[in-house]
Structure formats: structure tokens, C-alpha cells
Design brief:
The complex is a heterodimer of chains A (610) and B (290). Helices cover 38% and strands 20% of the residues of chain A. Chain A contains 20 helices and 23 strands. Chain A has an eight-stranded mixed beta sheet with strand order 7-6-5-2-4-3-16-9, with helices on both faces. Chain A has a seven-stranded mixed beta sheet with strand order 11-10-12-13-15-14-21, sandwiched between helices. In chain A, strands 18-20-19-22-23 form a five-stranded mixed beta sheet, with helices on both faces. An eight-stranded mixed beta sheet of chain B has the order 2-1-3-4-6-5-8-7, sandwiched between helices. Chain B has nine helices and eight strands. The chains are: A alpha/beta (610), B alpha/beta (290). Bound molecules: thiamine diphosphate (TPP), iron/sulfur cluster and magnesium ion.
């Protein structure tokens, strides 16, 4: 069996390992981080190395951390590789390929004991940042090799990646394949040069350091095609699968790549995509398109969502289907544009004046992003209301390898709700009432343009025809009652939390959205250590799926809310609805994503034992 | 010609007696009747304000939106279903003030949308505050010493911003206004019709008499050619003793926004039959991530 192998017990300090075979009580996976300035090829190099690993049949989890600038600063690309599916990143790094001195100073402390710092020998690094922690220093003349063998300094990155592969003794052919593919556009000379440089780096890595480095990665026998996809891409794929016909947006990190992806696929998948003058216009365009009968969406982050708030209420009042993706980043205000947080939950739940039905969903994984987006379009049309899909920087940019079967793009359900067809309208005997008062609260919808269904849509309180009726008491009770009935029934279409881990556990972690992976791995680790732990993870948040959730929450012996925010917003919601107060909270609001280690450390600090 | 009563709505009109908006309502109905556009073939969009209630007083498809946002909502509808005639009705505060960013953006886009701005140079519905188009020194409840800002010039802004049809009407001459609206509807592209609309309650300066003494028709002006952008620019700045009404500017042959969106060539996206992607399409999408 292949895969990354840790073949010694770090604490014992012995160094006997055998590549490809797992020995001892190793952690059968490892984390590689590339770090340097923007423009130094951290992301492209990392992505290339990741595909070399994935082509070997290995499982991956990648995430990035970058500064809000185009050149300079400090960025990293991190990949965790394993011979089994991965759900989260780890805080500890086993090998750090550093392209700048700051990368060493800032990230050296993240290296685990016995881990290695790999860098160009011309780089002046602060060795104290690493040496006192029993970290190995591998200074390789990357630039010199690049210059001498490839004739180009710029190939130092390729040399570094070659060295990396050599150190972990991952077969060179996989690296070579990626080089051939990625540089093909640039011609044979460039491909050849990079191959020679990578091979030279590989030899140095393998011959000088492999024997000292304890983690190895070898390809697996089984190498099926897997999708490497991030949250934003999964949302866009979901939207395309669901028949989204219109998307408008205004660029804002971390939501922009959805708009970019949709624009890039517009022609092929028949979607009108529009960058607008601001986020107010973005949601207004989507509302206009949604009301006209096209499945419509917009995507933004908290700042843009703030601008959309008034129109969100319009969609609620006028009963227009629209899907809004809110990719959170730390606030308040501009906050930390390239960091992560789950700080907008209660804002999304209650944004805009007055009371109206809305649906809030928070997918936890890429698979969830896909399915949730499809559902969001169906729910928006069925209930004729805005649906907010909440993600955050981490989920939008994080990738995992996922079997393609998890994305049944051609087998999704498209449910347009009570949308009257032209034939149904032709046969209409009575005058068409856009806001007909019905038992479910849903008024059959007609697209504007049919002779039998001339109608008005209105932001003021209105009568069943859609005409202004913003004074009358009885009408107000009727129409507000109709909208509220929808809200009460929506919950029947929503799902309770996913449960992971053993029943009757002494400790229950509770969370929502992007923290799924970190919580799931924390649960595995705790159970392996003998602390019987399980997890309640919520995707469907509002209307709160009380019937399914309340018994599970009540049954929790010790309930720990895990959230990427400062105040425990979801815990507040749960307490407001169910009366159950979380016994503890594990919160993170430093802009960094929740990880299994962080959760466990916090539990240990709080002396939480089951 | 259709019967103008076709467009009558059962809703009681709530404008003040003598309000300039009545003339605009009549002109809109008359223009649609003459063009034989049926109520289901047109969709009105308005914001919030006295004038924005106009669609409610019509029998036609309409969306009364929120203050200042009718233009982007109308754009979304036009891009989803360009078979509909789209007419936006805004106030001056609504269209040029709070919705100002949308106004300057739509000028560059040239969608086939008619924009009728009921320009009473005051905020009517909120009871008489100054507006972006109020004349310098306009005394109102929030500008007791007179407004310090100079007035916004919508026509010059529209010409400068790329509008392909720019006209000014006077609600005291609904027949002339109806002709302008007909020309605007027939124009392929964004068409602004700014309407001098007396507010008999809150604007004691720009009254019916004020306008009757000053307005003159460009089409009766010898040698005036609306295709001449420089001449239009000069007319857009003429204000005071003489005020031009009529078509100031009209460019021919500029493609509309929707004509340039490749997905719309085969018809409105709102009318597509929705179905899951085919297996081949799904595979192609998945393969991008291998
Ligand atoms: C966001 C928002 N701000 C303020 C208002 C209050 N408001 C309603 S109409 C209006 C101004 C109306 O002026 P104008 O657009 O010129 O229309 P008029 O009433 O003069 O026809 C204002 C400020 C509102 N409805 N929404
Ligand atoms: S306040 Fe002015 S604009 Fe409003 S209805 Fe009365 S006259 Fe017309
Ligand atoms: Mg006004």
C-alpha cells in the first residue's frame, strides 16, 4: 500500500522508515506548504505539485492564505496529502518550501518536530525561527541549479518542487508529467529546461535529504479520476446544473470567482452574466430577471450584501425568487478581505426591515455547495422568496479531491414550483391574481407577457392583484398572513442537521457551514482517543428546522458550539429557538479557519472531557 | 389605434388636483394606444415617489420597486425577456438622485428601454424637500436659506453619457408629450424623456405659467437637427427665458445592449425550457476539474 507514511514515533526520535509502507503508529498523511511573496509562483507551483500528487491516486486537501495585494506580501499554498479522503487541513506543516525570508519567520513556527524547511541557499533566513524546534534545515542551491542547468533563474521554483518530490521520494515521473502539461504552451525548449532542472532538484532532495526526512508519499495503485474543486466552483457548477439563466454581481473577495466562472461558461451553458455598477444594481438586476421568469442569482461578500439589504426586502415583499450567495469574510466594514470568518449569520437572517419569508442555507463542503445551490434555486421558485447561501473565504478557496459521482450534474431535480405555463394561462377562466391568498401562501406565478395574466408586482403593501393597498387593515392582515404562511411551511422542505459519530456520545459538537470538515476530523480524533464524541452539522438554518433539530440538541449530554465568529451566533439562534444553551463554545475569529487541532486544543484548555 | 380605455386601471388616482402627473399618465396611455401596444406586451417599472405611482394607475404589467432602483430592475427584466416593451417611470429624486449611479450606467449600455422622468424639481411624496434638479437657491423645508447646490442637468448628462435618444416634454402639453413618448418607444435603444412636471403643492417657481411662457418646440425650430450632437449639447444647456422641448438628440444605428449579448440571439432566456444538462454536458463540466 502506498500513500504518505510516517514511519517513526517523533517523540522517540528514531528514524527508521521504509518508503511506501506504513510502520509504527504513524500519522498516515502529511502537509506541505509553499510560501512566498505574491508573484513568486506560490499558488501555481503549489497547484502543479498538487496535481502531481492527485495523479498518483492520492487524496488531497488544499487551501491558500494570501494578503490583499497583487505583488509582495506573504502568501501560502498548503496541501495535505493522504491515502484516504481528507476533510480538513492541519495546523502543523511537515515540509515548508519557502521563497522569501518572511515565509520562514512567519511560518517556521508551524513546522512540526522533525519537519523540514526547504529553501534556496542564497536566502537569508532567520534560522532561530526554526532550529530550536528540532526542525531540519535543507538549504538547496535552487537558483544556482536553475541557472546552470536550465539557464534561467526563474526555474528555481521548478527546482524547489523537484527537490520536494525527491525528499518525500515521490516518483519523478508524476512531476515530469505535470511539467510537460503545464509548460506545453511555451514550447519544447521551456519544457525541456524545466524537466532538467526539476530532475536535478529531485536528485539533490532524494540523495541528500530523503534519508533524514521521515514522511514519504508514494502513489496508490488505484488512480481514478477525481475532481479537485473549491466551494465557489461547486456553487457555480450547481447553478449551471440547476438551470440558472441569469447572474449579476459586483466584484468582491471572496465571491468574485463565482461571477468570473459563470461569465466564462455563459456562452456554453446559456446564461446571461452581467457585472453591474454596484451591489445594489447586482441584486436589482437579479430580481428583475427572476421576476421575468429566468432563474437568477447574485453573489457577494458581507459589504456588498449590506448594500443589497433593501432590495432583499423587496424580493420578500414582491415574492420574487432570487438566489444570493453571501461569501463571508471578517468584518466589520472592510475587515480582513482575504481571511475567513462566519460572522454574518444573524445579519443574513434578519437583514432588511419588516418580516418576510427568506431561506438561509450554509453548505459545509464542496459537495454540499453543489447540492445546496441546486436546492436554493428550487426553493426560491417554489416559495417565491429570496434564498441566501452562506459560505466564507475558507470554503470558497479550499479544494478537496472528490469522486465525480458526488456531482450528479445531469441528474438534478428542477422544480419550478407553481409557475403557470402559457397553456395553463390560456385556459384561465377568472382574472389572474398575482398574490392570490391560498392555504399554502403560495400564489401561482405567471411570467409577465401573457395576455391573460397582465399583472402588477409591488413593493408597497398590495392587494391580491398587486395594486397598492397600503392603508387597509384587513388587507394587511390578509397579505402579511399569506406571506407568513409560506414561512411556516418552508420548514417542511428543510433538513435537520447531519449527525456524524456515535449515538449517545458524551460530547456533542454543533456547528454550521464551512466548519464541517474540521469538526468531523476532530470527532474522529477524539473518538480514537476514547472520548465518545459526535457532531451535529447544520446546512439548513432558516427557517430553523426545529422539529428535526430540537430533539437532537436536547439529547446532547454536553453541547459544544463550534463557530468561526466571536460571539457564537448560531448558538444564540439555537438558544432562542430551542431554549437549550450550549454548554461551551469553541470560537475562532482571528481570520483563520477552524481546524481539528484548534478545536481539540480549545476543548482541552476548557477541560472538556466526556 | 387601440382604445385608450384599454389601459385604465380600477385604482383611484391619488395625485393632487392639478398635478402635472395627470398629463403624463394621459400621454403614456395615448402613446401606447396609437402604437397599438397591448397591456400584456409592455411592462412598467417605477420607484417610489408621487410620480412612481403612475404604473398602478395603468392596466399593464408593472413592477413598483423601491426608491431609485427601477432602472437596474428593468435592466434585469429586459435581459431576461427582451420581447417585452420596457418603460421606466422615475421621479427626479428617484431617477437622478438616489438612483444616480444607475442613471449614468444605463446611458452607456443602450438597452431598449424608455425612461420617463417626471421632473418636478422637488421631492413631492416626502412633502417638499429640494431635489437634485431644484434650481440653485430653491427654498424648501431642508434648505430654508435656499439650496447651495446647482441643479443637476439630466439632458446634458444623458448626451454626454452616451444616451442615444434624449428628449424633453412638458406635461402641460400631453399631445406633444405623447408624440415624444411614441418616438421614444420606437427608438431602438435607451430613450430618456425628461418631463417638466409642475408640482402644484411644493414647487411655486416651476409652475404651469412659468413653463407656458418659456417652452418652445425644437421641431418647429428651423434647421434644428436632432442628429447633431453638438447642437443637442447646446440645447441641453438652454434654460431661463427660453426652454426647448422636443427631441434634442437621437442617434441612429447604435446596437442595443441586448442585441450584443450572444445568449439572447436565439430568444429570451426567461422562455427557455429548463431541463437537467445532458450526460455529455455534465461530463464536460466535471472534466474541467480532473
Ligand atoms: C430608501 C428610501 N429613502 C427615502 C425614501 C422616502 N422617499 C419616498 S419618495 C422620496 C422622494 C420623492 O421625490 P421624487 O423622486 O422626485 O418623486 P416625486 O414624489 O417628486 O414624484 C423619498 C425621499 C424611500 N422611500 N426610500
Ligand atoms: S405633491 Fe406635487 S407631485 Fe405630488 S401629487 Fe401633489 S402635486 Fe403632484
Ligand atoms: Mg420630484
Amino acid at each position: 500500500m502506498g500513500g504518505p507514511t510516517r514511519a517513526r514515533d517523533t517523540k522517540a526520535g528514531t528514524r527508521a522508515f521504509i518508503g511506501g509502507e506504513q510502520r509504527g503508529e504513524g500519522i498516515n498523511d502529511m502537509t506541505i506548504r509553499l510560501a512566498g511573496e505574491a508573484g513568486q509562483g506560490v499558488e501555481s507551483g503549489g497547484a502543479g505539485f498538487a496535481s502531481a500528487l492527485s495523479h498518483g491516486g492520492l487524496w488531497l486537501h488544499t487551501h491558500t492564505d494570501y494578503m490583499s495585494r497583487i505583488r509582495g506580501g506573504l502568501n501560502f499554498f498548503q496541501m495535505r496529502v493522504s491515502d484516504r479522503p481528507l476533510w480538513a487541513h492541519t495546523e502543523g506543516v511537515h515540509i515548508l518550501l519557502a521563497f522569501s525570508p518572511e515565509a520562514v519567520t512567519d511560518y517556521g513556527p508551524h513546522l512540526v518536530e522533525g519537519g523540514a524547511l526547504l529553501y534556496d541557499d542564497s536566502l537569508k533566513v532567520d534560522q532561530a525561527a526554526v532550529t530550536r524546534r528540532k526542525v531540519q534545515l535543507y538549504a538547496v542551491p535552487l537558483t544556482k541549479i536553475a541557472q546552470e542547468i536550465g539557464g534561467e533563474k526563474i526555474m528555481a521554483n521548478t527546482c524547489g518542487l523537484g527537490a520536494l518530490a525527491g525528499i518525500i521520494e515521490y516518483p519523478f515521473e508524476f512531476v515530469a508529467d505535470v511539467i510537460k502539461k503545464n509548460f506545453a504552451r511555451k514550447g519544447d525548449a521551456v519544457v525541456g529546461g524545466n524537466l532538467k532542472v526539476a530532475e536535478a532538484g529531485y536528485k539533490v532532495g532524494r540523495d541528500q535529504y530523503a534519508a533524514k526526512f521521515d514522511w514519504k508519499v508514494s502513489p496508490l495503485k488505484d488512480r481514478p479520476d477525481r475532481m479537485q474543486i473549491n466551494g465557489n466552483q461547486a456553487i457555480a457548477v450547481g447553478a449551471i446544473a440547476a438551470g440558472c439563466r441569469f447572474m449579476s454581481g459586483y466584484p468582491m473577495t471572496p465571491a468574485s470567482s463565482i461571477l468570473e466562472f459563470m461569465a466564462g461558461h455563459a456562452k456554453k451553458y446559456d446564461i446571461v452574466v452581467k457585472q453591474t455598477e454596484d451591489e445594489i444594481a447586482a441584486i436589482c438586476f437579479a430580481i428583475g430577471a427572476g421576476n421575468a421568469g429566468a432563474r437568477a442569482m447574485t453573489a457577494t461578500s458581507g459589504g456588498g450584501f449590506s448594500l443589497m439589504v433593501e432590495a432583499l426586502g423587496l424580493a420578500g415583499m414582491a415574492e420574487v425568487p432570487v438566489v444570493i450567495v453571501e461569501a463571508q469574510r471578517p468584518g466589520p466594514s472592510t475587515g480582513m478581505p482575504t481571511k475567513t470568518e462566519q460572522g454574518d449569520l444573524l445579519f443574513a437572517l434578519f437583514a432588511s426591515q419588516g418580516e418576510f419569508p427568506r431561506i438561509v442555507l450554509a453548505p459545509g463542503t464542496q459537495e454540499d455547495c453543489f447540492h445546496t445551490t441546486v436546492r436554493a434555486f428550487n426553493l426560491a421558485e417554489k416559495w417565491q422568496c429570496p434564498v441566501i447561501v452562506m459560505t466564507d473565504f475558507y470554503l470558497t478557496t479550499m479544494t478537496r479531491l472528490i469522486p465525480p459521482a458526488e456531482f450528479p450534474i445531469d441528474r438534478v431535480t428542477i422544480d419550478r414550483g407553481e409557475l403557470l405555463t402559457a397553456q395553463q394561462l390560456d385556459r384561465l377562466a377568472e382574472p389572474y391574481l398575482r398574490y392570490k391568498d391560498t392555504p399554502s401562501g403560495i400564489s401561482p406565478r405567471a411570467m409577465p407577457g401573457h395576455a391573460k395574466a397582465v399583472h402588477q408586482t409591488c413593493s408597497d403593501e398590495h392587494d391580491e392583484y398587486g395594486h397598492f393597498e397600503d392603508e387597509d387593515r384587513a388587507n394587511r392582515l390578509k397579505m402579511a398572513g399569506k406571506r407568513w404562511r409560506k414561512f411556516q411551511h418552508i420548514v417542511d422542505d428543510l433538513r435537520g442537521p447531519t449527525i456524524y459519530g456515535p449515538e449517545g456520545a458524551g460530547l456533542t459538537l454543533m456547528g454550521w457551514g464551512s466548519s464541517y470538515g474540521a469538526m468531523r476530523e476532530a470527532v474522529d480524533i477524539l473518538n480514537a482517543r476514547g472520548t465518545k464524541t459526535n457532531l451535529l452539522h447544520f446546512v439548513d438554518i432558516w427557517p430553523f428546522p426545529e422539529a428535526q433539530a430540537a430533539p437532537l440538541i436536547e439529547a446532547a449530554r454536553q453541547l459544544v458550539a463550534v463557530e468561526g465568529n466571536q460571539s457564537g451566533q448560531f448558538a444564540h439562534l439555537v438558544r432562542a429557538v430551542t431554549g437549550r444553551r450550549a454548554d461551551r463554545m469553541v470560537l475562532r475569529w482571528d481570520g483563520r479557519p477552524l481546524s481539528p487541532e484548534y478545536i481539540i486544543e480549545q476543548l482541552e484548555e476548557a477541560k472538556v472531557h466526556a | 389605434m387601440l382604445d385608450v380605455k384599454t389601459y385604465n386601471s380600477p385604482i383611484k388616482v391619488t395625485w393632487c388636483p392639478g398635478c402635472g402627473d395627470y398629463g403624463i399618465l394621459n400621454a403614456v396611455k395615448s402613446a401606447l394606444a396609437q402604437l397599438e401596444i397591448h397591456p400584456h406586451e409592455v411592462m412598467f417599472f417605477s420607484g417610489i415617489g408621487c410620480g412612481s405611482k403612475l404604473p398602478d394607475y395603468m392596466n399593464a404589467n408593472a413592477f413598483t420597486t423601491i426608491h431609485g432602483r427601477s432602472l437596474p430592475i428593468a435592466m434585469g427584466t429586459k435581459l431576461a425577456n427582451h420581447d417585452l416593451h420596457v418603460i421606466c417611470i422615475t421621479g427626479d429624486g428617484d431617477g437622478y438622485g438616489i438612483g444616480g449611479n444607475h442613471f449614468i450606467s444605463i446611458l452607456r449600455r443602450n438597452p431598449d428601454i424608455v425612461h420617463i422622468a417626471e421632473n418636478n424639481m422637488v421631492y413631492g411624496l416626502t412633502k417638499g424637500q429640494y431635489a437634485p434638479t431644484s434650481e440653485h437657491g430653491f427654498v424648501a423645508s431642508t434648505t430654508p436659506e435656499g439650496s447651495i447646490e446647482i441643479a443637476f442637468n439630466p439632458l446634458a448628462t444623458a448626451i454626454n453619457g452616451g444616451a442615444t435618444f434624449v428628449a424633453r416634454g412638458f406635461s402641460g402639453d400631453p399631445k406633444h408629450l405623447a408624440k415624444l413618448i411614441m418616438a421614444a418607444v420606437q427608438h431602438r435603444g435607451y430613450a430618456l424623456v425628461d418631463v417638466l412636471q409642475p408640482c402644484v403643492i411644493y414647487n411655486k417657481i416651476n409652475t404651469y405659467d412659468y413653463y407656458r411662457e418659456r417652452v418652445y418646440k425644437l421641431e418647429e425650430t428651423a434647421g434644428y437637427d436632432p442628429a447633431d450632437r453638438d447642437a443637442a449639447w447646446r440645447k441641453a444647456h438652454e434654460w431661463g427665458e427660453k426652454i426647448p422641448i422636443g427631441i434634442l438628440y437621437q442617434a441612429a444605428g447604435v446596437p442595443t445592449y441586448e442585441e450584443q449579448v450572444s445568449e439572447l440571439r436565439v430568444g429570451p432566456v426567461a422562455k427557455r425550457q429548463l431541463a437537467p444538462l445532458t450526460g455529455a454536458q455534465a461530463d464536460a463540466l466535471r472534466r474541467q476539474f480532473f
